[in-house]
Design a protein that fits this description.
Number of helices: 8
Radius of gyration: 15 Å
Distance between the termini: 25 Å
Shape: globular
Number of domains: 1
Strand content: under 5%
């Protein structure tokens, strides 16, 4: 299993390559949540073990929040399977605005349950339960991916 900082660093750099701009912190956190949900949906196991907290604007990783401004220092190689998952999530959600991803995560059972008993604008320290993220994952269909394009981009892997 990966550390969330390593996944975030790869995601941060990959986003810059694909979209030609730097990802903002809010979008990074929401994409991390979506990656975790997709990993549970496709592979039936979490991508990273660190918790995501139910903050006002959606799921947040405290680990990533603490390193965001030096995130490139955490970049390490990740598995091809994880690269494929990240590319797929970026293809599906990367072009959306941060606030749209915020609204999307507010529809998730895991985020809503983490916010129970909190005031609307209270930051919140409750983690999203993995069992709730699994419920969210079961509500979605595996996304369509153009794996051929991915493999063409990574044709030199393993050579």
């Amino acid at each position: 299993m990966n550390q969330v900082e390593h996944i975030a660093a790869y995601l941060y750099n990959r986003y810059r390559i694909l979209y030609g701009q730097t990802i903002d912190e809010m979008k990074l956190h929401k994409l991390l949540y979506l990656l975790q949900r997709e990993a549970l949906n496709l592979y039936h196991q979490p991508l990273f073990k660190e918790p995501l907290l139910g903050w006002v604007h959606g799921p947040v990783s405290l680990e990533v929040r603490s390193i965001f401004y030096r995130i490139e220092d955490f970049s390490i190689p990740i598995s091809l399977q994880t690269e494929m998952l990240i590319d797929s999530v970026l293809k599906q959600y990367g072009n959306r605005q941060s606030i749209d991803l915020c609204h999307l995560t507010h529809q998730e059972i895991s985020w809503r349950n983490s916010r129970k008993s909190l005031c609307k604008n209270e930051i919140g320290t409750n983690p999203l339960k993995m069992s709730d993220i699994v419920k969210d994952a079961k509500r979605i269909k595996p996304f369509d991916t153009d794996w051929g394009c991915f493999f063409e981009e990574h044709a030199d892997v393993g050579r």
